[in-house]
Design goal:
Transgelin, muscle protein, single chain, elongated, mainly alpha, acetylation, cytoplasm
């Protein structure tokens, strides 16, 4: 991890493409939300993906963010009093956040991997996970989200409809527009298929 040398050739191209996906405006929004959600004692990172990575790397701020989305009695992630300094403890803290985020409802496809954050390999994936978490918090609307609800998109919610038996029977007698129109089309003016073309000189 710490002894990893620079990448060259194809690896460098791939890493460069991944780094271009990082959005600095989105970083500002996410920092603003995290500070509002967790309180000003979490501080603010230096601008850019490296500052954002260093700020979140030990997993403590992510854990505080996750806990702030739950009521006081049921915090899903244990936050240590002193930030962990050992590498495996930091990675374990990030993994606990990811498990809690999955339990909260963030899909596996929206999750980053621990190394994406810890080694700074894909900070855009970290942003995607935080965006998905924010969207879920806004959608749940359970009173634990702090911040502007317009910062995140609301997730689509199920909207069940109940029909009576008589409504279902009436629906069977309606010709749907998917079947085509039941008026307007006629064969008036059509010529027979076998007639030769009439050329008059």
């Amino acid at each position: 991890m710490a002894n990893k040398g620079p990448s060259y050739g194809m690896s460098r191209e791939v890493q460069s493409k991944i780094e271009k996906k990082y959005d600095e405006e989105l970083e500002e929004l996410l920092v603003e939300w995290i500070v509002m959600q967790c309180g000003p004692d979490v501080g603010r990172p230096d601008r850019g993906s490296l500052g954002f990575q260093v700020w979140l790397k030990n997993g403590v701020i992510l854990s505080k963010l996750m806990n702030s989305l739950y009521p006081d009695g049921s915090k899903p992630v244990k936050v240590p009093e002193n930030p962990p300094s050992m590498v495996f403890k930091q990675m374990e803290q990030v993994t606990q956040f990811l498990k809690a985020a999955e339990d909260y409802g963030v899909t596996k496809t929206d999750m980053f991997q621990t190394v994406d954050l810890f080694e700074g390999k894909d900070m855009a994936a970290v942003q995607r996970t935080l965006m998905a978490l924010g969207s879920l918090a806004v959608t749940k609307n359970d009173g634990h989200y702090r911040g502007d609800p317009n910062w995140f998109m609301k997730k689509a919610q199920e909207h069940k409809r109940e029909f009576t038996e008589s409504q279902l029977q009436e629906g069977k007698h309606v010709i749907g527009l998917q079947m085509g129109s039941n008026r307007g089309a006629s064969q008036a003016g059509m010529t027979g298929y076998g007639r030769p073309r009439q050329i008059i000189s």
